[in-house]
Predict the structure.
Amino acid sequence: MKLGTTKNADQLRRYVRASLCLLAIVSADSLAQGDTVAGAPTFSKDIAPILQRSCQGCHNATGIGPMQLVTYEQTRPWAPLIKDRTTKRIMPPWHVARDVGVQGFKNDVSLSDGEIALIAAWADAGAPEGNPADMPPARDFPTGNEWALEELLGPPDVIIKSSPFNVDAGGQDQWWNPISEFPEQSGERWLRASEFKPSYPMGRKVVHHGHANLVPDGDGRPVGLAHYGVGMAWDLFPEGTGMKVPASGHVEWDLHYAPYGQEVEDFVEVGLWFYPEGVIPEKQTSGEQLFRVDGGQGLARGQDIIIPPHGTQVLQGIHRLETPASINSFRPHLHMRGRLMSMEAIYPDGRKEILSEVNKYNHNWQISYQFEDDTAPLLPAGTILQFTSVFDNTEANPLNPDPDQWVLFGRRGVDEMSHAWVGITYLNEEQYADAVRQREAAMTRLSAGAED
Ligand code: HEC
């Protein structure tokens, strides 16, 4: 549940009543700049708290948003556009369905219907400032130079840096796959959190997404240390959960750049926070694990992506879980024709449930939807995860660069891909049974509370 929703709904009802009384005297359209409606929502009291929670993380002095929405002076000229983008639910970027699937996300910045109506009422009333004394205390945001997790966890234990790359001013997507050293650790370590930081300020404009993988010395599978996409920069595992990191190896980068209209030199850093030496967390996570939703059935990777001009395609992929698991996050990765990806569970008893559905997918954003610890789906061994991707190559897709093209698999944004990145923690039967018991106890407490 989102804080403040009920209060805002009440406020809104009051304002609607107030403005109805005024309607006979003044219609919002006839307001000249600077005129305001008495009793309307004000910036200081009603709008600033919403902007602080849902907008300023990007729209601050060093954020990725194109303008600041911090002070009244900064925000006032944008009021009509803010109303437009919020009413259409384009801003804040949040593309997961709000009426299907598991709800309750750690990083939810979305607005309630009440908040959207409140913003609209404020803009229509001439965007009044109200009493500056009503302003909530300003929020502090890390600059692009700082680690976002530093405030919570202190400085990273290890920082890895990629070699620099010159991103051309124009043309197509560009890739950079350098290799960096991984500072040798005294032994195997357990990762608590990781953060991916393009160079500041210009690097953030050109890095579209990227991965840093640790390839261990000797044999052993590569470990996905950190992942980045516009809208996702860090991963903090739940308490008592960690990812095993081998003591030594080298880091392979996979960096995908989008040109920005001017040449930019970028390097990327990854910060790693470990559990203290000797501490072994109770649960081992794989971090974000890649589930392919293309290829399969004997086909090579991506061979089954064939979207006709002005056509559509659906792809599905299934993965059986051999052990119980909890799902901590969901991040679909499609390209420009991608419109939807859902993640469903088919339980061993045959029941089927939509866990999450990103139904307004937008390739410009790579958002990881991070479930709250107490809503994260808990799945028994034998559950089948079923992913469904929908591609739209018609003109109705606003991001479609050219509906006349056949679209096949490829790494460029104009080609297609179908990947689900899922934050997953595999559990043993005892951990699973414990987690289910705790969840049930919490539900009982909740429903008992609701009856009071
Ligand atoms: C995760 C980062 C992020 C958040 C959160 C966010 N924005 Fe944005 N916003 C952007 C970026 C980046 C752009 C420019 C690209 C685009 O329009 O998609 C933008 C564009 C806009 C624009 C259009 C500006 C123009 O010149 O066209 C408006 C208006 C806007 N945001 C308002 C808001 C409001 C209001 C909120 C909160 C309710 C919000 N944004 C939350 C990143 C964000």
Observations:
- Residues 54-55, 57-59, 64-66, 69, 78, 81-82, 85-86, 91-93, 109, 111, 231 surround heme C (CB under 6 Å).
- The domain at 150-432 is CATH 2.60.120.230 (Jelly Rolls).
- Residues 429-451 form the longest helix (23 residues).
- The CA atoms of residues 342 and 357 lie 4 Å apart.
